[in-house]
Each structure stands twice: as C-alpha cells, then as structure tokens.
Design brief:
By secondary structure, the protein is mainly alpha-helical. It contains 13 helices and no strands. The longest helix is centred in the N-terminal third of the chain and has 45 residues.
Length: 307
Amino acid sequence: MSKVVVKKKNLRQRSSSDIFFRILVSTVSVLAFVSVVYPLYFIIIASVSNSNYVNQGLVLFLPKGFSTYGYEQIFKDSRIWHGYLNTILYTIGGTLVNLAVTLPAAYALSRKNFRERKIIMALFVFTMYFGGGMVPTYMLINDLKIINTPWAMILPTAMSVYNLIITRTFMESSLPDDLYEAAILDGCSHFKYFGTVVIPLSKAVISVIFLYYMVGHWNDFFNALLYLNKDGLQPLQVVLRNILLVNQAFAGGAGSGAGAGAGSYAQQFADQIKYGVIIVSTVPILCIYPFIQKYFEKGVMIGAVKG
C-alpha cells in the first residue's frame, strides 16, 4: 500500500509540475506572438488613422480619424504598378537563378568522393568575409554590360554562400550513401540521381532557401540605386522610397513656406503615406508564406535532431 501511495504522490507532483511548465511555455509563447504581431498591426491601423492621434499615442488597438488618403496617394501613382511588375520579374527570375546555381553546387560539394570539395568550399567561405567592395563591383557590372538591364538585379546575387552551406549540410546529412549506391546499381547517372532522387527528397531545404532568396530579391533596393538609372526598370522598393521622399519634402516645404498649420496638415498625410508604404511592400510576402509554411517548418530544423 505504501508503494501505491508513493506512486500517486509522484504522479501528482509530476502533473503539477507539468501544468506549471505548460502555463509558463504558453505565457512565453503568447508574449512572443504579441511582440511580433502587434507592431505590424499598429502599422496597419496607423496607416488609416489621423497622424495627430498616432503621434499623441492615442492609437493603440483601433484606428482613429479613419482616412485612406495615404493609400490613395500611393496607388494613384502609375509608377507603383510598373514597380510591382519589375519587382515580380526580378524576384521570380532571381530566385530561379539562385536555385539553379545553389542546388547543383550544394549537391556536388556534398559528395564525399569529390576530392576537391574542401578546397572549393574554403574558397566559397572566403568570399563571405572578404570582398572587392562597392567600386570594383560596380566596375565589374559595368564591364559585363548589364548596367540598366534586369540582369543587374539578378546576376550579382546569383548565390548566397550561407544558403549554399545550409543546402550542402542537408544533402550531406539527410541523404544516406546507401541511397546513392542503390541508384548507381540501377544505372543512375549523377544528373538523373540529382533530378529524380535528391530534388524530391530536399523539399524542406529548398523551401527554406527559396523563401530566403525570394525575400531578399523582394526587398532589394540598393542594387537598383547603383545599377538602374531608368525609371522604367525601378523595382517597387525604389518607387515607394521616391514617393515617400517627395511627400516628406512637400511636408517640409509646406511647414517652412505656409505656416505651422499647413506644415502640420502636410506632415499628417506624409505620415499616413509612410505607414502605407510599409504595408504595400510587405503584404505580398506575407500572403505567400502560408503556402510554404509546412516545408519551412521542417527545413528550419535541419541538423537539430539526429535521426
């Protein structure tokens, strides 16, 4: 009987500790979720609220002084649609080029019978820490004759060494050598093995680097400032930046030239446009993420658990 009592007491202690642990984890998770989601939610409600209320700290959970002026000013500019089209082109084309370069390179470097892989990998890692700099890179892009062409947004970022390391590690640790040996016995070449076996089994890591590359191309504006001088080639981020700068300049000019009242009025709508610009540039990526979330959750755990 004493043993049964001790077991029941241990079960109660375990259950109480489990309950405390679950409460603690749930609390931390909720706080983390709120800390991530609320800033985005605040930007959404601030973009349709009177900026005076926002600046006074009166907008916390619901919009006040509802107005869509910021979005109207953004979307009535025809450059927005050209910017969207250009960014979609650069993002799709750039991401396809990234995958076409990264995946074969990672596969080759993951093969243990490839003797030169350590030397080549060391050269790749070297470029992570040392580069030629902005001016030599610009001279190279200019010599390649791709200034003021879409290729200037695609080729200079054809591969990320960081993503190469992630992909190579996955292929090296998650794809057993027995699978390769069985494929070779069945008459598979390296190309056929890579296309029919490696790629289907690497969906998790492909989704991870796909998202990383896609977000990088979508947010890229610095290369556009350096290599693109034609307005018709500017991506969305540069177009939104120009709209924001024009409205900020207008607000400053109104404040200095027409009195404090006009300046405050102009600044109010400039702030709305500022928040609207953030939403317009962020929403498309947020809409795409749920479709690859399943693979992304698997991919980010690469190397965390030994199977």
